[in-house]
Design a protein that fits this description.
Residues 162-228 form the WYL domain. Helix content is 39%, strand content 23%. It has ten helices and eleven strands. The strands form three sheets. Strands 6-5-4-3-7 form a five-stranded antiparallel sheet, sandwiched between helices.
Amino acid sequence: MPTRTGRRKRPRLGHNHGMDKIERITSLHRILKASRYPVTVKRLQEELGCSRATVYRDLAYLRDALMAPIEGDGEAGFRYNASEGDRFELPGLWLSSEELYALLAAQQLLVRTGGGVLSGALAPLQKRIEGLLADHAGVSQWPVDRVRVIPHRGRHIDEASFRAVASAVLERRQLAFEYRARSTDERTRRLVSPQRITHYRDNWYLDAWDHERQGLRSFAVDRMGQARALDEPAKDLSNDDLNHHLASSYGIFSGEPKGWATIVFSAKAARWVADEQWHSKQQGRMLSDGRYELKVPYSVSRELLMDILHYGADAEIVEPAVLREQAKSLLELALANYAKA
């Protein structure tokens, strides 16, 4: 039913039933819009995960309240009218849970950029996102203080360098910068072809082709200085090559996998680890005694060891032997710090 302002009322967020209906109506619209032929009620039941009666109620709501050009019947199936279906869109803003989560994450990421030049440039975008969220929730102003994303060990970045990096990635230009390696503190000059900028664990990284070293590398943006985009076009690598090198192993410091690590977690830790996504190709299973076995591919061991040691006595590396010995050495060094008088 139209309101006084001419806008249609939509289900409000805040009740599970409302969220379920938003999800179903959005999915139903997308199914009908993508289908060239009538879609049976049985298929709609399977796609929407609801009863036959609910399918008919949603179809009626979509047709009568939202003016969707639905045609058909329960025998042949339903579809959008061929002449009107392409033009029809849901009125107002309808978001699935995944889209709402993405907007919330983007809004919080903008809030956390700080008070410098970068956040000033992004302020208009932040206001637009908050406006979209407010419209979806049916309120006049999005309650920012009701959503919190707490950063964990985020590092400060130089905004001028970040802008240069982002510009070079998007404009497909080569990038020159000074890099101070965290492991050795050595300073080097780098000339790279940026491929992707990655936000990982509250920090930014640049995936790039290093021209001097003739290989793909990942650089922490917070370790860059004097970054400037050049006029020379960047060398482009295929997504398959990038994914093979940068997503095939554990963590941001990925590469061609050297092997698989098998870690067994205590029954207490299993309640957390079983729900965690360590890697897209991980393999996990509950053991008969309540413990949890996790297998992940890895290239560079230091980040994997950091995550395993985070669980302390509740995690044990079973194999490979070399990774087990590395963990043992780190634990012995840590213990030695407490043995000093």
